[in-house]
Design brief:
Helix content is about 40%, strand content about 20%. It is α/β, with parallel strands linked by helices. The protein folds into two domains: about 230 residues, Response regulator (Rossmann fold), CATH 3.40.50; about 100 residues, 3-Layer(aba) Sandwich (Rossmann fold), CATH 3.40.50. Strands 8-7-9-10-11-14-15 form a seven-stranded mixed β-sheet, with helices on both faces.
């Protein structure tokens, strides 16, 4: 991977612009702050997520991945249909409330002139899908692995991460019982967690096992996990399905170990091993299966170092950061292919050609090789990992289902 300087192109002209009309013209191809030929214009990328509150770390990770991509793209220069643009990320906090996401998306499109809006949670994505093909059309960058996002048949949605259905069968195959034992349920009670639970439960029963009562809880508001964990362990599960934001997931696993649980965990893809290691004794995570840490993918060292230096952070760099970093350049490349910054349908139609033309320096881990007809980025390099009783990650390949 080529090392890219993190200095950014000056955007003083954008600060000089004021009023929603100027913003809209700048975003959609109008004259920039200085006017005249040769001046750069501002291209707004919208983002609505929970960037405050209990799960804010996740929202900020995605935000940072997008911002890093924007900075790198601005550094090398963005030219679309003969016009130079400076990309700008406009972020609004929705605190993971879908109704707020819808309001934010409308504001980003109508007030800020965004034609692409990224949303990193299933409920908010579904709310945005009710708006993005109507009068104010916009392309939706959907960062959630909920397959219902694709099932909606929304022609202006691009789903970025692998569907969680890719993981369920391989996860079951990796645990000792291979689905023949008892499965405890202790994931987050969000819409995403419930969909994961429903799909995993069905697959577990199909494999011949027994699914116990659902003890899912709100990971964002519950702080005392002893009760739900005790209730789950009372059924003597062989494997527990667990997961939500990484910090509370780690604490729930820790509580289960404190209460004497010796079995295995299947960790839904929202939680990341490299983050959970920061919040509990890593030994508590042994005998668990989940998505592979980014450092387990070849060639990621430079990206991790650049990210930590850029954001003055010693926190783990995970898939949420990396996948959004490498997704945004595909959208920009599609604009180049379409010769348009303000026609979402043309940009979406250009995606199949754009995927293969993004510079390799933007690829981090399981970068998209293609986009499906339904609008899903697909990678042939996807891997998951089993953390064994020695604390070592045993990676294995995951095949994404045909769409």
């Amino acid at each position: 991977m080529v090392r890219i300087p993190s200095s950014r192109v000056s955007r003083s002209f954008a600060l000089a612009a004021s009023g929603s009309l100027v913003l809209a013209l700048a975003a959609c191809g109008g004259e920039g702050g200085e006017g005249g030929s040769g001046s750069e214009e501002t291209l707004v990328i919208g983002y609505s997520a929970g960037i405050s509150g209990g799960a804010a770390e996740y929202g900020r990770n995605v935000q940072n991945g997008l911002q890093m991509a924007i900075d790198d793209l601005n550094e090398e220069g963005v030219e679309i249909d003969g016009t130079s643009y400076t990309l700008k990320l406009e972020s609004l906090d929705d605190q993971y409330q879908p109704s707020t996401t819808g309001t934010n998306a409308q504001r980003l499109v109508q007030k800020e002139g965004a034609k692409i809006v990224f949303v990193p949670h299933a409920g908010g994505i579904k709310a945005a899908q009710e708006l993005n093909t109507t009068r104010d059309k916009f392309l939706l960058g959907a960062y959630s692995s909920d397959p219902a996002i694709l099932d909606a048949g929304n022609e202006l949605t691009v789903m970025i991460p692998p569907s969680f259905t890719s993981y369920i069968g391989p996860f079951i195959d990796k645990v000792e019982t291979q689905g023949k034992g008892k499965l405890g349920l202790l994931t987050t009670s969000s819409e995403f967690g419930q969909e994961w639970t429903k799909a995993a439960s069905a697959a577990w029963e199909e494999a011949g096992g027994t699914v116990q009562s659902n003890n899912n809880i709100d990971y964002g508001s519950v702080s005392d996990f002893a009760g739900p964990v005790s209730k789950t362990l009372s059924g003597k599960p062989d494997v527990i399905l667990v997961g939500g934001p990484s910090q509370p997931t780690a604490l729930i696993i820790e509580e289960a170990r404190k209460q004497g649980y010796k079995g295995e965990f299947m960790v839904i893809d929202q939680a990341k091993f490299e983050e959970m290691e920061e919040f509990t004794d890593p030994k508590n995570l042994n005998n668990s299966v989940g998505i592979a840490p980014i450092q387990e993918f070849e060639g990621t060292e430079d990206f991790i170092t650049r990210y930590q230096e850029k954001f003055s952070s010693d926190k783990p760099v995970n898939a949420d950061i990396a996948l959004n970093y490498q997704a945004l350049p595909v959208f920009v490349e599609a604009m180049k292919e379409a010769g348009s910054v303000d026609d979402p349908q043309k940009i979406r139609d250009a995606m199949p050609d754009a995927v293969g033309k993004v510079d390799e320096k933007f690829e981090v881990a399981f970068a998209p090789d293609r986009i499906s007809d339904k609008g899903h980025f697909v990678s042939d390099g996807l891997k998951a990992a089993y953390r064994n009783d020695k604390g070592e990650y045993e990676t294995f390949e995951i095949e994404q289902p045909k769409e």
